[in-house]
Amino acid sequence: MSDGASPEAWWRDAVIYQVYIQSFADGNADCIGDIAGLRSRIGYLAELGVDAVWITPWFDSPLRDEGYDVSDHRAVHPRYGSVEEAKDLITECHAAGIRVVLDIVPNHTSSDHPWFVAALRSAPGSPERSRYHFRPGRDGGDSPPNDWLSVFGGPAWTQVDDSDGNPGEWYLHLFDASQPDLHWDSPEVRREFEGILQFWFGLGVDGFRVDAAPALVKVPGLPDMGYSKDAFRADLTRADHPHRDRDEVHEIYRDWRRIADSYDVPRMFVAEAGLDDVARLARYVRPDELHTTLNLRYLESAWTADSMRTAIDTSIAVTAPVGAPTTWVLSNHDVERVVTRYGRADSRRYPGVSGPDLGPVDEELGRRRARSAALLTLALPGSVYIYQGDELGLADADVPARARRDPIWIRSGGLRLGRDGARVPLPWTPAGASYGFGRDGAWLPQPDGWGDQAVSVQEGDMSSFLELYRTALRLRRLLPGLRVASKLRWRDAPRDDVLVFTRAPGFGCVVNFGPTPVPVPLAGLVLLSSAVTGARDEVPPYGAIWLDLDGQTTV
Ligand code: NOJ
Ligand code: CA
């Protein structure tokens, strides 16, 4: 909360920490992170200084897409705990001043969901099938109903058997075959999701991230996309797309907003909506719809002065006209970690892939850039998302082929590495079983040396990533220039590979994207530098600094 804004608008400038629960902390020694582990680390989050956590799906699920395949949205998967423990967690987080945001997955259910199981047992045309997209195949039934492709690669349709064992209808899945798409024309589907929101809001949850927010509505008739024969993965970029960003999707979110606003303390939504068309994106955060949208444009940008400045300007320009704040996201569980991506010569983000095919990674360079990126990001107006482990400077782990489990890896027959490298359990201690993640192993193997960047190693070491994040977060709360209402103003930069901006009152930020130092171009006191050593009157190569321009801040 800041600038006298009501506490209800906490999401406008909140720092939200993404907890990938299975990899955060394991409380019961089964090698999988859980609620007990998370509860034991609330102190860590409070000390880090975050305002909220976003917890990735912890619902009942067969876990074919790590929980984004939900079989019961009102139950916690037993491996994570129970609804009772979830309630305790929410209470404890609130007591520590941390809000709790969950992840809702409305585009699809798991194929183990009772609705889908019932649909498979029911005849074509039955009410049970009408909750999903079932269609007869083409070519006498043998070919999929249209040419749509999955976001994970391969066809977006799978054929089921009829009750007599003969091949029957096909169902649509924009993701894995274990994630059948729901049919949002169905009033039952709408009511069910409203009930799920009310269930968790009733337990005190402060908000929801909306998974695949633009995907829910499909154009009637499901026309072909016109893919070429060798296309492998869904093209999500097309305008007037048949299964993405249909106008009707907004009615759903208006209904959801009414529910969120019906509480004494209104609840919030953040959309996962990676739309290239920024004007279309802004429609999701109109005043009567979702509150914010995860900024994937920023996340995808290459680490160059030009590209980052364009991403920042575009992001602010998109949401300002509708009165919504911007969010800033450097990474998440779906992409390579910042250190790895920024360690490449070409630091743009490529969807769903990682690995040597994108060029070698210089992790040292990646770390220096990632430290600067942390300072740049935390200095921007709006809300910031931190993916767990980024505050430790973790790079993607090299997960052995036998341990990989991402459907992107499986569906591509190992041609695409997928996202497992960014999902490896956190190191809390330098040694020991799973480096303190739990008392035993870790569900995804942690590489040798993983403990070198453990929390306990970094704590108290002022040259560490963790302490850089802690200091930056503390200053972010403290400095009036970093409050949400304070606008960013670009200043002349001494070189093309440098960005300089100020925010009144008295805050300055300089980011040097280049390989040579640059003299500090603003008069003021250096509050924080991404580099551990170096002269105070210059911004080091690949470095960033924060400045107090008024000399008013006592740190
Ligand atoms: C986006 C989620 O972040 C990702 O992990 C998941 O695979 C897809 N949506 C499908 O739910
Ligand atoms: Ca566990």
Short overview:
The protein is 24% helix and 15% strand.
Q: What would you say this structure looks like, in words?
A:
The chain is built from 14 helices and 20 strands. With 555 residues, it is α/β, with parallel strands linked by helices. It starts with 14 loop residues before the first strand and ends in a 7-residue tail after the last strand. The model has no long low-confidence stretch (mean pLDDT 95). The structure holds 1-deoxynojirimycin and calcium ion. Residues 65, 68, 105, 175, 211-212, 272, 333-334 line the site of 1-deoxynojirimycin.
- Tally the helices: 14
Going by helix content, strand content and strand pairing, the class is: alpha/beta
- Rg measurement, Å: 23 Å
Give the proportion of residues in helices: 10-25%
Q: Beta fraction of the residues? A: 5-15%
Principal-axes geometry comes out as globular
Bound molecules: 1-deoxynojirimycin, calcium ion
User: N- to C-terminal separation?
Assistant: 21 Å
* Poorly predicted sequence stretches spanning 5 or more consecutive residues: none
| Biggest β-sheet description | 8 strands, parallel
Mean pLDDT reading: 95
* Number of distinct beta strands: 20
Q: Order of strands across the biggest sheet? A: 11-10-9-5-2-1-13-12
